[in-house]
Amino acid sequence: MRRTIHNNINPPYSLHDMSITAFDVAEDKITMRSDTGMVETVPPYAQVDGCVEFYDVQWDFSFVYLLSATGNVGKFDGEKMFLKDFIERFPVFGFSIMDETFGYNMTKYNGFLSGNREFCECIIEIYHEGDRVFVES
Length: 137
Fold this sequence. Notes:
Blueprint: E1 13-14, E2 19-26, E3 29-34, E4 38-40, E5 47-48, E6 50-54, E7 63-66, E8 79-82, H1 83-89, E9 94-103, E10 106-115, E11 118-127, E12 132-136
Antiparallel strand pairs: 1-4, 2-3, 2-9, 3-6, 4-5, 6-12, 7-8, 7-11, 9-10, 10-11
């Protein structure tokens, strides 16, 4: 019998419960800024100032899903848009991250968005063929 153990991706920092306030775009690079920084994922779990950079972002495969306002179970309305359209539509926003998921060339954040007089559950998918870099400032 063949058994393969797959280790979870263990990033050095977490953005759980952090509030994202801006995406700075320069061609195929995104810098995601938080007003509260990042938390180290090893003891003593220090909170540090910093941002996350995504390189070689594939805009045609990066999306944002805006879902019902309350996040309740049941029927909901939603909207799917390209990440680039989201960035244009919400120049000022707050996105509170509740969960982070890392996959093959994909980083996904789930949480709640407030901006443009909207409050809703939100999923942000960033498809990047380059590195995800945590920058401590």
